[in-house]
Write a structure and sequence with these properties.
The chain has about 300 residues and is α+β, with helices and mostly antiparallel strands. About 30% of the residues lie in helices and about 30% in strands. The strands form three sheets. Strands 6, 7, 8, 9, 10, 11, 12, 13, 14, 15 and 16 form an eleven-stranded antiparallel beta sheet that branches. A four-stranded parallel beta sheet has the order 2-1-3-4, with helices on both faces. Strands 5-17 form a two-stranded antiparallel sheet.
Length: about 300
């Protein structure tokens, strides 16, 4: 197996405690690429294809994982065999790593995991395709209230030193309490064939679960995209979220303005804020499609 380590020195845990992969790279003779600057990543991917890299280990947060795997997917045709990926949690929230990453960032644990047999999980990512520009790949996409809460958590809670899952939970709780209009603004959205009208927000993912066990999806089917949206007539939001957190998914929540389905693709017409894996995207046209990528193999 030919490995490449990729480290983001600016990720929250890495910047505080230092990289786990860099000393391991020196011990094992593995090539290690530092994402400084991030603009050099495409050339590193090209070199990985030429070198026959078949296993990429990423150390960073959700945005780092999204950016690195996106760069590899953009150059997928350059690889004789597309590499598998492993994730060392190095960010603040590490939503993706908690689902399909290594369970610890401890140096001994990471070394033992990479030295031993690893379990394989095949899973697609989301592919957000701008009708007038580039495409993006990631794991968790949202419109409406979630971007509003993201601004709050990064601008207020992180500034106060509250990070990780606690910050996300704090933002969600403040939003569902309904005491801050800036976090719960209604915006218009059109999702062809699904919904057209004012909405509180949408959440789309291919991940099997979300933050701290909350999995707000209950649509049936085998389609790769899981989507939940909340329309303007919503009520009892806190109660519904609590019930979903408890795993109660058999109830029809449409009378409360909550809807969930599994779909092949979603064609959006939306000009409000959008977030992919905690990073704001700019799609000025407001017209974009969300699909699934080809399955990617993650080794854990």
């Amino acid at each position: 197996m030919t490995r490449l380590f990729i480290v983001n020195q600016l990720s929250e845990r890495v910047s505080r405690k230092g990289s786990v992969l860099e000393p391991l790279a020196k011990q094992s003779g593995t090539k290690c690429f530092s994402l400084d600057p991030f603009d050099a990543l495409p050339s590193a991917v090209s070199r990985a294809a030429k070198d026959g890299v078949d296993h990429v280990v990423i150390e960073g947060g959700d945005g780092t994982v999204q950016g690195v795997i996106s760069a590899f997917l953009y150059q997928m045709e350059a690889f004789d065999s597309f590499p598998s990926f492993s994730i060392v949690p190095g960010g603040m929230t590490n939503q993706v790593a908690k689902n399909i990453g290594l369970k610890s960032a401890g140096a001994q644990f990471v070394k033992a995991a990479l030295d031993g047999p690893m379990d394989a999980v095949d899973m697609p990512l989301l592919n957000i395709i701008d009708s007038a520009g580039p495409s993006y790949a990631g794991f968790l996409f949202s419109t409406g209230a979630i971007p509003q809460i993201t601004r709050y958590t990064t601008g207020e809670l992180h500034r106060k030193g509250i990070g990780g899952s606690a910050a996300v939970l704090g933002g969600i709780l403040k939003g569902v309490r309904g005491d801050d209009d800036a976090l719960m603004q209604i915006t218009p959205v059109c999702m062809d064939g699904l919904y057209d009208g004012p909405h509180l927000g949408t959440v789309v993912t291919t991940l099997p679960s979300l933050i701290m066990g909350l999995d707000p999806f209950w649509g049936d089917g085998e389609e790769p995209l899981r989507i939940t949206w909340v329309d303007q007539s919503y009520k009892g939001l806190a109660k519904n979220i609590l019930q979903l957190w408890m795993g109660l998914k058999g109830k029809d929540r449409s009378p409360d303005g909550l809807h969930s389905k599994r779909v092949e693709e979603i064609r959006y017409h939306y000009t409000g804020d959008i977030v992919l894996d905690g990073e704001f995207l700019s799609i000025p046209s407001g017209k974009f499609t969300v699909r699934a990528t080809r399955p990617v193999t993650f080794l854990t």
